[in-house]
Amino acid sequence: MKTTISIGLALSVVGATVLAQTVPNTVDAHVAAAKAAAGSEHTNTFNSLCMATEERASSNPAPRANATPPPPPDRAKWHVEPMKVFDNLYYLGQSEYSAWAVTTSAGIIVIDTLFDYSVEDEIVNGLTKLGLDPKNIKYVIVSHAHSDHEGGARLLQDRFGAHVLMSQADWDLTARITQSWPKPRKDMVVTDGQKLTLGDTTLTMYLTPGHTPGTISTIIPVRDNGRPHVAAEWGGTGFNFTVSPDKPRRYWYETYAASADHFRDAVKKAGADVLIANHPEQDGAKAKLAALATRKEGAPNPYVIGNDSVVRYVTMVGECARASLLRFSAATK
Question: Rounded to an integer, what distance in angstroms lies between the CA atom of residue 282 and that of residue 148?
Protein backbone atom coordinates (compact mmCIF):
# COMPACT_ATOMS: atom_id res chain seq x y z
CA MET A 1 0.00 0.00 0.00
CA LYS A 2 1.26 3.47 -0.88
CA THR A 3 0.43 6.42 1.36
CA THR A 4 0.87 10.14 1.10
CA ILE A 5 -0.01 12.92 3.53
CA SER A 6 -1.28 16.40 2.61
CA ILE A 7 -1.38 19.66 4.56
CA GLY A 8 -5.02 19.14 5.43
CA LEU A 9 -7.35 21.26 7.50
CA ALA A 10 -5.21 24.38 7.25
CA LEU A 11 -6.70 24.83 3.79
CA SER A 12 -10.15 25.14 5.32
CA VAL A 13 -9.18 28.40 6.99
CA VAL A 14 -8.84 30.03 3.58
CA GLY A 15 -12.18 28.63 2.44
CA ALA A 16 -13.91 29.77 5.62
CA THR A 17 -12.48 33.28 5.25
CA VAL A 18 -13.70 33.59 1.67
CA LEU A 19 -17.13 32.29 2.61
CA ALA A 20 -17.41 34.67 5.55
CA GLN A 21 -16.72 37.54 3.19
CA THR A 22 -19.57 36.56 0.84
CA VAL A 23 -22.36 35.41 3.21
CA PRO A 24 -23.62 37.77 5.95
CA ASN A 25 -23.37 36.10 9.35
CA THR A 26 -27.06 35.71 10.09
CA VAL A 27 -29.25 32.62 10.34
CA ASP A 28 -31.40 33.70 7.40
CA ALA A 29 -28.39 34.44 5.20
CA HIS A 30 -26.74 31.08 5.85
CA VAL A 31 -30.03 29.23 5.33
CA ALA A 32 -30.54 31.11 2.06
CA ALA A 33 -27.00 30.25 0.96
CA ALA A 34 -27.59 26.61 1.83
CA LYS A 35 -30.89 26.55 -0.05
CA ALA A 36 -29.28 28.08 -3.12
CA ALA A 37 -26.49 25.49 -2.95
CA ALA A 38 -29.00 22.66 -2.55
CA GLY A 39 -30.78 23.61 -5.75
CA SER A 40 -33.31 21.02 -6.84
CA GLU A 41 -30.98 18.03 -6.33
CA HIS A 42 -30.26 18.11 -2.59
CA THR A 43 -33.55 19.24 -1.05
CA ASN A 44 -33.95 16.21 1.25
CA THR A 45 -30.66 16.85 3.00
CA PHE A 46 -31.30 20.59 3.10
CA ASN A 47 -34.66 20.09 4.76
CA SER A 48 -33.43 17.55 7.30
CA LEU A 49 -30.22 19.40 8.18
CA CYS A 50 -30.93 23.09 7.72
CA MET A 51 -34.59 23.41 8.59
CA ALA A 52 -34.54 21.32 11.78
CA THR A 53 -34.84 23.56 14.82
CA GLU A 54 -34.59 20.87 17.52
CA GLU A 55 -31.26 19.45 18.61
CA ARG A 56 -30.64 15.79 17.86
CA ALA A 57 -29.42 13.41 20.51
CA SER A 58 -26.02 11.76 20.35
CA SER A 59 -25.71 8.54 18.34
CA ASN A 60 -23.92 6.99 21.31
CA PRO A 61 -26.19 7.53 24.31
CA ALA A 62 -25.20 6.00 27.64
CA PRO A 63 -27.03 2.71 28.13
CA ARG A 64 -29.68 2.43 30.81
CA ALA A 65 -28.71 0.49 33.93
CA ASN A 66 -29.12 -3.28 33.42
CA ALA A 67 -30.39 -2.70 29.89
CA THR A 68 -30.19 -5.61 27.47
CA PRO A 69 -29.55 -4.97 23.76
CA PRO A 70 -32.73 -4.96 21.69
CA PRO A 71 -33.20 -7.84 19.25
CA PRO A 72 -32.31 -7.18 15.59
CA PRO A 73 -35.19 -5.77 13.56
CA ASP A 74 -37.02 -8.04 11.17
CA ARG A 75 -34.98 -8.57 7.99
CA ALA A 76 -37.91 -7.64 5.77
CA LYS A 77 -37.79 -4.12 7.18
CA TRP A 78 -34.18 -3.39 6.22
CA HIS A 79 -32.89 -5.79 3.56
CA VAL A 80 -32.00 -4.44 0.12
CA GLU A 81 -30.52 -6.44 -2.73
CA PRO A 82 -26.95 -5.45 -3.73
CA MET A 83 -26.42 -3.57 -6.97
CA LYS A 84 -23.62 -2.65 -9.33
CA VAL A 85 -23.50 1.16 -9.58
CA PHE A 86 -20.29 1.65 -11.58
CA ASP A 87 -17.85 -0.76 -13.19
CA ASN A 88 -15.91 -0.85 -9.91
CA LEU A 89 -18.40 0.43 -7.29
CA TYR A 90 -21.22 -1.59 -5.73
CA TYR A 91 -24.03 -0.74 -3.31
CA LEU A 92 -24.20 -3.17 -0.37
CA GLY A 93 -26.46 -1.19 1.93
CA GLN A 94 -29.72 -1.59 3.77
CA SER A 95 -32.88 0.42 3.18
CA GLU A 96 -31.70 3.31 5.39
CA TYR A 97 -27.95 2.68 5.77
CA SER A 98 -25.37 2.51 3.00
CA ALA A 99 -22.23 0.44 2.48
CA TRP A 100 -20.07 0.36 -0.63
CA ALA A 101 -17.53 -1.95 -2.24
CA VAL A 102 -14.75 -0.69 -4.51
CA THR A 103 -13.25 -3.42 -6.65
CA THR A 104 -9.63 -3.22 -7.78
CA SER A 105 -7.14 -5.42 -9.61
CA ALA A 106 -5.82 -6.63 -6.24
CA GLY A 107 -8.94 -7.01 -4.11
CA ILE A 108 -11.87 -5.17 -2.58
CA ILE A 109 -12.14 -2.06 -0.42
CA VAL A 110 -15.34 -1.83 1.65
CA ILE A 111 -16.55 1.58 2.81
CA ASP A 112 -18.70 1.29 5.94
CA THR A 113 -19.95 -1.98 7.37
CA LEU A 114 -23.53 -1.42 8.58
CA PHE A 115 -24.65 -3.04 11.85
CA ASP A 116 -23.30 -6.24 13.34
CA TYR A 117 -26.67 -7.92 12.66
CA SER A 118 -26.73 -7.04 8.94
CA VAL A 119 -23.10 -7.26 7.78
CA GLU A 120 -23.35 -10.97 6.93
CA ASP A 121 -26.54 -10.57 4.93
CA GLU A 122 -25.80 -7.36 3.07
CA ILE A 123 -22.02 -7.29 2.67
CA VAL A 124 -20.77 -10.89 2.80
CA ASN A 125 -23.74 -12.44 1.01
CA GLY A 126 -24.22 -9.32 -1.12
CA LEU A 127 -20.76 -9.60 -2.61
CA THR A 128 -21.36 -13.28 -3.32
CA LYS A 129 -24.64 -12.50 -5.10
CA LEU A 130 -22.76 -10.01 -7.28
CA GLY A 131 -20.22 -12.66 -8.26
CA LEU A 132 -17.51 -11.22 -6.04
CA ASP A 133 -15.58 -13.14 -3.39
CA PRO A 134 -15.73 -11.58 0.10
CA LYS A 135 -12.44 -13.32 0.86
CA ASN A 136 -10.89 -10.65 -1.36
CA ILE A 137 -11.81 -7.83 1.04
CA LYS A 138 -8.45 -6.28 1.88
CA TYR A 139 -9.41 -2.98 3.50
CA VAL A 140 -12.41 -1.56 5.33
CA ILE A 141 -12.76 2.21 5.64
CA VAL A 142 -15.10 3.24 8.45
CA SER A 143 -16.37 6.74 7.74
CA HIS A 144 -17.19 7.34 11.39
CA ALA A 145 -17.48 5.44 14.65
CA HIS A 146 -21.22 4.93 14.97
CA SER A 147 -22.67 1.44 15.13
CA ASP A 148 -24.63 1.79 11.87
CA HIS A 149 -21.32 2.16 10.01
CA GLU A 150 -18.76 0.42 12.22
CA GLY A 151 -20.82 -2.42 13.69
CA GLY A 152 -19.91 -5.01 11.04
CA ALA A 153 -16.20 -4.21 10.86
CA ARG A 154 -15.15 -6.79 13.44
CA LEU A 155 -16.68 -9.65 11.44
CA LEU A 156 -14.82 -8.62 8.27
CA GLN A 157 -11.64 -8.20 10.27
CA ASP A 158 -11.89 -11.59 11.97
CA ARG A 159 -13.21 -13.69 9.08
CA PHE A 160 -11.25 -12.27 6.15
CA GLY A 161 -8.26 -10.58 7.77
CA ALA A 162 -9.31 -7.22 6.35
CA HIS A 163 -7.48 -4.15 7.61
CA VAL A 164 -9.81 -1.64 9.28
CA LEU A 165 -9.09 2.06 8.77
CA MET A 166 -10.31 4.89 11.00
CA SER A 167 -8.97 8.19 12.21
CA GLN A 168 -7.20 8.26 15.56
CA ALA A 169 -10.01 10.36 17.01
CA ASP A 170 -12.61 7.78 16.04
CA TRP A 171 -10.49 4.87 17.24
CA ASP A 172 -10.45 6.73 20.55
CA LEU A 173 -14.22 7.22 20.33
CA THR A 174 -14.67 3.50 19.67
CA ALA A 175 -12.72 2.71 22.83
CA ARG A 176 -15.09 4.92 24.84
CA ILE A 177 -18.34 3.61 23.37
CA THR A 178 -20.36 1.67 25.93
CA GLN A 179 -22.91 0.09 23.59
CA SER A 180 -22.63 -3.68 23.32
CA TRP A 181 -21.88 -4.21 19.63
CA PRO A 182 -18.58 -5.90 18.63
CA LYS A 183 -15.82 -3.32 18.25
CA PRO A 184 -13.00 -3.90 15.74
CA ARG A 185 -9.47 -4.28 17.06
CA LYS A 186 -7.47 -1.11 16.52
CA ASP A 187 -5.69 -1.33 13.19
CA MET A 188 -4.74 1.35 10.65
CA VAL A 189 -4.93 5.06 11.50
CA VAL A 190 -5.98 7.47 8.75
CA THR A 191 -4.40 10.91 8.52
CA ASP A 192 -5.65 13.85 6.49
CA GLY A 193 -5.05 13.51 2.77
CA GLN A 194 -3.81 9.93 3.08
CA LYS A 195 -3.97 7.81 -0.06
CA LEU A 196 -4.93 4.14 -0.01
CA THR A 197 -3.72 2.26 -3.07
CA LEU A 198 -4.85 -1.28 -3.82
CA GLY A 199 -3.86 -2.64 -7.21
CA ASP A 200 -4.90 -0.20 -9.92
CA THR A 201 -7.03 2.05 -7.71
CA THR A 202 -6.14 4.87 -5.30
CA LEU A 203 -8.62 6.41 -2.85
CA THR A 204 -7.89 9.64 -1.00
CA MET A 205 -9.21 10.13 2.53
CA TYR A 206 -9.72 13.46 4.27
CA LEU A 207 -10.33 14.10 7.95
CA THR A 208 -13.60 16.02 8.23
CA PRO A 209 -14.41 16.08 11.96
CA GLY A 210 -17.81 17.30 13.02
CA HIS A 211 -20.33 14.49 12.83
CA THR A 212 -17.84 12.58 15.00
CA PRO A 213 -14.40 13.67 16.26
CA GLY A 214 -12.65 11.96 13.36
CA THR A 215 -15.09 11.55 10.48
CA ILE A 216 -13.45 10.53 7.19
CA SER A 217 -14.64 11.74 3.77
CA THR A 218 -13.31 9.96 0.71
CA ILE A 219 -12.54 10.61 -2.96
CA ILE A 220 -12.95 7.48 -5.11
CA PRO A 221 -12.11 7.00 -8.80
CA VAL A 222 -14.86 5.06 -10.58
CA ARG A 223 -15.65 3.98 -14.12
CA ASP A 224 -18.94 3.77 -15.98
CA ASN A 225 -18.71 1.50 -19.02
CA GLY A 226 -15.01 2.30 -19.04
CA ARG A 227 -15.47 6.07 -18.80
CA PRO A 228 -13.70 7.62 -15.77
CA HIS A 229 -15.55 9.56 -13.10
CA VAL A 230 -14.72 10.61 -9.54
CA ALA A 231 -17.01 9.91 -6.59
CA ALA A 232 -17.05 11.86 -3.35
CA GLU A 233 -18.47 10.59 -0.07
CA TRP A 234 -19.12 13.13 2.69
CA GLY A 235 -18.44 10.97 5.72
CA GLY A 236 -21.10 12.08 8.19
CA THR A 237 -24.00 14.46 7.75
CA GLY A 238 -26.17 14.79 10.87
CA PHE A 239 -25.71 17.20 13.76
CA ASN A 240 -26.14 14.48 16.43
CA PHE A 241 -22.99 15.49 18.27
CA THR A 242 -21.63 14.09 21.52
CA VAL A 243 -21.08 17.28 23.51
CA SER A 244 -18.84 17.59 26.56
CA PRO A 245 -17.59 20.41 28.78
CA ASP A 246 -14.37 20.70 26.79
CA LYS A 247 -16.14 20.35 23.42
CA PRO A 248 -19.53 22.07 23.65
CA ARG A 249 -22.05 22.20 20.86
CA ARG A 250 -20.55 25.44 19.52
CA TYR A 251 -17.24 23.63 18.97
CA TRP A 252 -18.93 20.93 16.89
CA TYR A 253 -20.80 23.34 14.61
CA GLU A 254 -17.63 25.36 14.01
CA THR A 255 -15.57 22.23 13.38
CA TYR A 256 -18.20 20.80 11.03
CA ALA A 257 -18.33 24.02 8.97
CA ALA A 258 -14.53 24.14 8.66
CA SER A 259 -14.47 20.49 7.58
CA ALA A 260 -17.09 21.17 4.91
CA ASP A 261 -14.88 23.95 3.52
CA HIS A 262 -11.92 21.58 3.55
CA PHE A 263 -13.68 18.78 1.70
CA ARG A 264 -15.33 21.20 -0.72
CA ASP A 265 -11.83 22.24 -1.79
CA ALA A 266 -10.86 18.58 -2.23
CA VAL A 267 -14.00 17.92 -4.30
CA LYS A 268 -13.19 20.87 -6.56
CA LYS A 269 -9.57 19.80 -6.99
CA ALA A 270 -10.50 16.20 -7.75
CA GLY A 271 -13.25 17.19 -10.18
CA ALA A 272 -15.65 14.84 -8.39
CA ASP A 273 -18.85 14.48 -10.41
CA VAL A 274 -20.49 11.67 -8.40
CA LEU A 275 -21.98 11.96 -4.91
CA ILE A 276 -22.43 8.96 -2.64
CA ALA A 277 -23.38 8.94 1.02
CA ASN A 278 -23.73 6.56 3.94
CA HIS A 279 -27.49 7.05 4.22
CA PRO A 280 -29.70 6.69 1.12
CA GLU A 281 -31.75 9.82 1.80
CA GLN A 282 -28.59 11.92 1.62
CA ASP A 283 -27.65 11.06 -1.97
CA GLY A 284 -31.04 10.09 -3.39
CA ALA A 285 -29.95 6.47 -3.53
CA LYS A 286 -33.40 4.90 -3.61
CA ALA A 287 -34.45 6.74 -6.75
CA LYS A 288 -31.02 6.35 -8.35
CA LEU A 289 -30.79 2.63 -7.66
CA ALA A 290 -34.29 2.17 -9.08
CA ALA A 291 -33.23 4.08 -12.20
CA LEU A 292 -30.11 1.94 -12.54
CA ALA A 293 -32.23 -1.20 -12.40
CA THR A 294 -34.03 -0.15 -15.60
CA ARG A 295 -31.16 1.76 -17.23
CA LYS A 296 -30.89 1.13 -20.94
CA GLU A 297 -27.62 0.79 -22.81
CA GLY A 298 -26.11 4.19 -23.48
CA ALA A 299 -28.34 6.00 -20.98
CA PRO A 300 -26.62 8.29 -18.44
CA ASN A 301 -25.75 6.98 -14.99
CA PRO A 302 -28.07 8.72 -12.48
CA TYR A 303 -25.24 8.97 -9.98
CA VAL A 304 -23.24 11.25 -12.29
CA ILE A 305 -24.44 14.73 -11.31
CA GLY A 306 -21.47 16.95 -12.20
CA ASN A 307 -18.78 18.66 -10.16
CA ASP A 308 -20.86 21.79 -9.59
CA SER A 309 -23.62 19.77 -7.93
CA VAL A 310 -21.22 17.84 -5.69
CA VAL A 311 -19.50 21.08 -4.65
CA ARG A 312 -22.88 22.61 -3.88
CA TYR A 313 -23.81 19.66 -1.67
CA VAL A 314 -20.74 20.10 0.50
CA THR A 315 -21.24 23.88 0.52
CA MET A 316 -24.82 23.33 1.67
CA VAL A 317 -23.96 21.20 4.70
CA GLY A 318 -21.38 23.75 5.83
CA GLU A 319 -23.88 26.59 5.53
CA CYS A 320 -26.44 24.59 7.51
CA ALA A 321 -23.85 24.15 10.27
CA ARG A 322 -23.27 27.92 10.37
CA ALA A 323 -27.00 28.60 10.53
CA SER A 324 -27.43 26.06 13.31
CA LEU A 325 -24.54 27.57 15.26
CA LEU A 326 -26.21 30.98 15.20
CA ARG A 327 -29.57 29.48 16.20
CA PHE A 328 -27.90 27.71 19.11
CA SER A 329 -26.00 30.81 20.16
CA ALA A 330 -29.18 32.89 20.19
CA ALA A 331 -31.07 30.25 22.17
CA THR A 332 -28.39 30.02 24.88
CA LYS A 333 -27.82 33.73 25.46
Answer: 15
